[in-house]
Design a protein that fits this description.
The complex is a heterodimer of chains A (344) and B (371).
Chain A (H helix, E strand, L loop, with lengths): L1 H39 L15 H11 L10 H17 L10 E3 L2 E3 L9 H22 L3 H32 L4 H11 L3 H4 L1 H14 L11 H4 L9 H26 L21 H22 L5 H29 L3
Antiparallel strand pairs in A: 1-2
Helix pairs in contact in A: 1-2, 1-10, 1-11, 2-10, 3-4, 3-10, 4-5, 5-6, 5-8, 5-12, 8-10, 8-12, 10-11
Chain B lengths: L12 E5 L11 E7 L2 E8 L7 H7 L2 H9 L6 H16 L5 H30 L2 H22 L8 E2 L2 E2 L7 H23 L3 H7 L7 H6 L5 H5 L6 H4 L20 H24 L19 E9 L2 E9 L5 E7 L1 H6 L1 H6 L4 H11 L3 H5 L1
Antiparallel strand pairs in B: 1-2, 2-3, 4-5, 6-7, 7-8
Classes of the chains: A mainly alpha (344), B alpha+beta (371).
């Protein structure tokens, strides 16, 4: 019986929660984004649906779901249908290893707030996010149209090259924590009492830049640059299938934010976990600390989008390979030397 | 067509950009030959917005034809109107009274600002900076309100009449314009904070779409696009019309002829236009609005070419009169149409992303190109 509860019931409930909450979170983020950008651009944003536009995130999915399902005549049917599924599934299963908070006690039973504590968690996240690229390439290819193809090629090149710098940027953290498990990384920050962002500021900045590029957001939103490639890889998609891509993109934004928070900003820990007089901050439960930090990152995403023009494809590649990658490698070497010297 | 060898000997792909493309500024179609992302050749297809404006000029009286001209470059309708009114006045040998002339200059310069603001917004939007677009529209709105108060229309204004202006300025006109003009330089600073020194903006515009002074002159490019290449040619100074000699203003010029220089030229021009308006608003003379002329406009037999500096370049009108109430032939020299010729030269060798930047930097309006 205990076996059933521990290994079947509780994980299923957690998975169900993630699957249910994530789309809602994405919907809420869209409103958050539109409002934030609207205020930056001296306008109001959505105001019509519900008070202060609060029901807009519900109206949008309903509209998308009720739309006619169009598959272009020239498209490769099966791949066309499969591509958004690949994108969205890979965006969702990453959340299996994200630790949202420490174990909480329900009915005297300690329930950790993560689905699984994979001992190669960080690697798992990186590899699954690469699978997401496949969905985009498939979509561009299956559409059998020129703009989506160009968009898909752009995003493939972009995601692959930024993945490299991203991978290098987290190595420093992994060396400090001595583990690939995301839970252990947070616990290592708890025991050392310092968020890793203070040990690894360069890596943190690199990670976030790469994360923005990885999720195809401004100023790296070339694959779907509407002023050049119409809508990029999802030009031919509409209705429900489009909404899956949309969902995947926003879920990926949450993933990158959550990874940045976990690796660099102490996950669910409050600020300065080693300073005891800040103990009153513990009033806010760890899960909320985690969510607040994610929201801060999302805010940065939107801020970027409102402020900056878009990079050009070759400039993006140059930035990734010639600037970020060498810096990331240098960071790894410096960290390694320091860890060895200081007996890390 | 180019016969350049493509990388890896693959076949080049042809992409039809437009006429329903988000950033071709209307219904321009550009047939791009691409080697991957690199543009080998570009061919413009125009005519989707052809309305036969020149032919209409032969079927309408001179007075009736003026509002039609507002529909050419609908972003700068006031300039179109001024150009044609002055052409016919020249043909008739009439000069508009000074009060009308000053109102004309103020309105035309305000209109130049709206045109440049719209260009700035859409150009930045094409390159991905969306916020500037909304800031630019905020200020454009203020000017359109002034237009609306003056003549009732916001876009296709039909602001002037042959021989002067129809409307007296309204109460509070000077205050409204003065308030706007005093605030405006700060607003331009605001756009510049977002763009001028932005690294991404610099990378996207420096060295993109370079047009040498010689090429620009050979292709007949005029307006900010020519001045961006370093040629100091502005009809307001070179062949003064209206009362421009009474005003002090500079002609900003670029050096390299790239997209960034053209951006800077237009930003500076907005400041200069504000300067002209602030000078004009203080010294509007008293007097009549219309010159003394007969109600029925019947120019003597003959032809005339007159051109003005529209926001986009030299806007010229060639009118042949057969002595009747209608023109025998009207011909428009639209700046956008001529400037668009430069596109092919400018995009060759650049990437797809640059094509939209270059179309944007030429500041074309399809209503004017196709007429």
């Amino acid at each position: 019986m205990d076996f059933l509860i521990d290994y079947i019931l509780i994980p299923l409930v957690k998975i169900g929660l993630i699957l249910a909450v994530l789309p809602l979170a994405v919907a809420a983020i869209t409103l958050f984004e539109r409002k934030i950008i609207a205020f930056m651009q001296v306008r109001l944003g959505p105001m019509r649906v519900g008070p202060w536009g609060l029901l807009q995130p519900i109206a949008d999915p309903i509209k998308l779901l009720l739309k006619e399902d169009i598959i272009p005549a020239g498209a490769d049917r099966w791949i066309f249908v499969l591509a958004p599924v690949v994108a969205v599934v890979s965006a969702f299963i990453v959340f299996a290893v994200i630790p949202f908070g420490p174990a909480i006690r329900i009915f005297g039973k300690a329930i950790p707030l993560w689905v699984t504590d994979l001992n190669i968690g960080a690697l798992y996240v990186l590899s699954i996010s690469s699978v997401g690229v496949l969905g985009i390439i498939l979509a561009g290819w299956a559409s059998n149209s020129k703009y989506p193809l160009l968009g898909a090629l752009r995003s493939a090149a972009q995601m692959v090259s930024y993945e490299v710098a991203m991978g290098f940027s987290i190595i420093g953290v992994l060396m400090l924590a001595g583990s690939l498990s995301l839970v252990s990384i947070v616990k290592a920050q708890e025991s050392s009492g310092v968020w890793y962002v203070f040990y690894q500021p360069v890596a943190f900045i690199l990670f976030f830049i790469c994360g923005v590029a990885e999720t195809n957001r401004a100023p790296f939103d070339l694959p779907e640059a509407e002023s050049e490639l119409v809508a990029g890889f999802h030009t031919e998609y509409s209705g429900f299938r489009f909404s899956l891509f949309f969902l995947a993109e926003y879920a990926n934004m949450i993933t990158v934010s959550a990874m940045a928070v976990t690796l660099f900003l102490g996950g669910w820990l409050r600020p300065f976990p080693n300073v005891s007089w800040l103990g009153f901050l513990d009033i806010i439960p760890p899960v909320f600390w985690f969510i607040i930090k994610i929201i801060v990152f999302l805010y940065f995403y939107f801020w970027f989008r409102a402020s900056w023009p878009r990079y050009r494809y070759d400039q993006l590649m140059k930035l990734g390979w010639q600037r970020l990658l060498p810096v990331a490698m240098a960071n790894v070497i410096v960290t390694a030397i320091l860890v060895v010297l200081l007996g890390g | 067509m180019s016969t350049k060898e493509t990388l890896f000997d693959t076949s080049e792909i042809t992409v039809s950009m437009g006429p329903q493309h988000p950033s071709t500024h209307g219904v321009l179609q550009v047939k791009l030959k691409l080697d991957g992302e690199r543009v080998l050749d570009a061919e413009c297809v125009i005519g989707y917005l052809h309305r036969g404006v020149e032919k209409l000029g032969e079927a309408q009286t001179y007075g009736q034809f003026v509002p039609t001209l507002d529909r050419m470059d609908y972003i700068a309708a006031v300039s179109n109107c001024l150009g044609f009114c002055e052409t016919i006045e020249k043909l008739l040998g009439v000069t508009a009274p000074p009060r009308a002339q000053y109102i004309r200059v103020i309105m035309t310069e305000l209109n130049r600002i709206t045109s440049h603001l719209l260009w700035l917004g859409t150009h930045a939007l094409d390159i991905g900076a969306m916020t500037v677009f909304l800031y630019a529209f905020r200020e454009r709105e203020e000017i359109l309100k002034i237009f609306e108060n003056y003549c009732g229309a916001r876009l296709t204004t039909h602001m002037f009449r042959i021989g002067g202006t129809q409307y007296e300025i309204y109460d509070g006109f000077q205050d409204q314009v003065r308030t706007f003009i005093n605030d405006f330089p700060k607003k331009v600073d605001e756009y510049e904070t977002l763009l001028t020194e932005n690294r991404i903006w610099l990378e996207r515009t420096r060295g993109v779409g370079v047009l040498s002074a010689k090429d620009a002159i050979d292709l007949g490019v005029t307006g900010p696009a020519l001045r961006g290449s370093g040629v100091e040619w502005d009809i307001r100074k070179a062949k003064p019309y209206a009362v421009y000699p009474d005003f002090q203003f500079d002609i900003p010029v670029g050096e390299h002829g790239d997209t960034y220089d053209r951006y800077m030229v237009r930003i500076q021009e907005m400041r200069q236009s504000a300067r002209i308006v602030s000078q004009g608003i203080e010294k509007i003379p008293d007097g009549p609005l219309m010159a003394k002329m007969s109600k029925i406009i019947k120019p003597p037999i003959g032809d005339i070419y007159h051109s003005i500096e529209a926001p986009k370049g030299e806007l010229g009108y060639y009118v042949v009169s057969d002595g009747s109430t209608q023109a025998y032939r009207t011909r428009v020299r639209p700046p956008s149409f001529v400037n668009l010729q430069a596109l092919r030269k400018m995009v060759a060798g650049h990437m797809v992303a640059d094509v939209v930047a270059i179309i944007g930097t030429l500041d074309i309006v399809l209503g004017e190109i196709d007429r």
